[in-house]
Design goal:
Length: 174
C-alpha cells in the first residue's frame, strides 16, 4: 500500500515559491550593487573590502564581472525552480510520469549545467584578478557532487522519457 504525503508536497510548493521570490530578490539586489558600484565606486568598493589604490582597477572589473554573472544566474535559477515546481504540481495531481516532466527534467539539467559553467567562470575571474596585495577571496571551489547532479538530471530525464513512453504503449495495448 502506497502512503500519500500531502504535507511534504505542500511544504515543497511553499519552499519552492519562497525560493523563486528570493532568487528574484537576490538578482535585484546584485543589480543594485552593480549600479551602486558604478555610481559610487569608492564607497561601494571600500565597503566590499577593496579600497581604491593604483592597482585595483582590474580587481574592480573582476568584481563587476562576477556581479554580472550573478545577475545572469538568476534566470537560469528561475527556470530550474519553476520547472521543479511544475513537477511537484504533477505529483500533487497524481500523475508525475508525463512527457512534460521528462522535458522539464531535461531543461533543469541544462540550466544546472549552465549554472556550473557560470560557477567556473566566477572562479576563473577571481583567480585572474586576485593579487597578493588585493586578493579576491570568494571561497570558490569545484564540487564533484554538483557535476554528478548534472549527470543524474540528464539520466533521470531519459528515465522519465522512457518510462512515459512505456506506460503510453502499455495503455495502448490494454
Amino acid at each position: 500500500m502506497s502512503k500519500s504525503y500531502p504535507d511534504a508536497l505542500k511544504i515543497s510548493r511553499r519552499v519552492l515559491g519562497a525560493l523563486i521570490k528570493l532568487n528574484l530578490l537576490m538578482g535585484f539586489l546584485i543589480l543594485a550593487l552593480l549600479i551602486a558600484s558604478l555610481v559610487a565606486e569608492t564607497w561601494v568598493m571600500t565597503g566590499l573590502g577593496a579600497p581604491p589604490t593604483d592597482t585595483t582597477s582590474s580587481l574592480y572589473l573582476g568584481m563587476r564581472l562576477i556581479m554580472v554573472i550573478g545577475i545572469g544566474a538568476v534566470p537560469l535559477t528561475h527556470i530550474v525552480l519553476t520547472r521543479l515546481l511544475a513537477i511537484v504540481e504533477t505529483v500533487r495531481l497524481g500523475d508525475p510520469f508525463v512527457a512534460e516532466n521528462a522535458a522539464r527534467l531535461q531543461t533543469i539539467a541544462w540550466m544546472v549545467l549552465g549554472l556550473e559553467l557560470l560557477h567556473l567562470a566566477v572562479g576563473a575571474i577571481a583567480a585572474g584578478v586576485s593579487t597578493k596585495a588585493h586578493p579576491l577571496d570568494i571561497d570558490w571551489n569545484i564540487s564533484l557532487t554538483r557535476w554528478l547532479a548534472v549527470l543524474l538530471l540528464f539520466v533521470l530525464a531519459r528515465v522519465f522519457e522512457h518510462g512515459t513512453r512505456m506506460r503510453d504503449e502499455l495503455e495502448g495495448t490494454v
